[in-house]
Design a protein that fits this description.
Blueprint: E1 3-4, E2 7-8, H1 24-32, H2 36-50, H3 61-70, H4 76-91
Antiparallel strand pairs: 1-2
Amino acid sequence: MLAVQGKPLPEGVNLMQLTIDIGYDQVFQLVRQLPPREKTRLHESVFSAMSPTTPEPVIPDDEYYEFLMNFPVVSEEEIEQILEAKKEVNKCQPVSL
């Protein structure tokens, strides 16, 4: 049964849809006028609409530990080689085509 302001609509009454273009400040002022219970209801509705529908996957601790322990590590020597190569690349002048 359809209702408006808690009162049931008479049989055969149709509803209209209305779209309004108003600014953020106007919306904010309207929200500030709501009674506390309606503000709470609006807050819950907005945040439930914004929450993800599927939870983020959880990696079990043992798999996470395994991942961390097998993650590639760069040695100090490799870092030095990378920095030297970067210096050499930076010395090159761009070539016009």
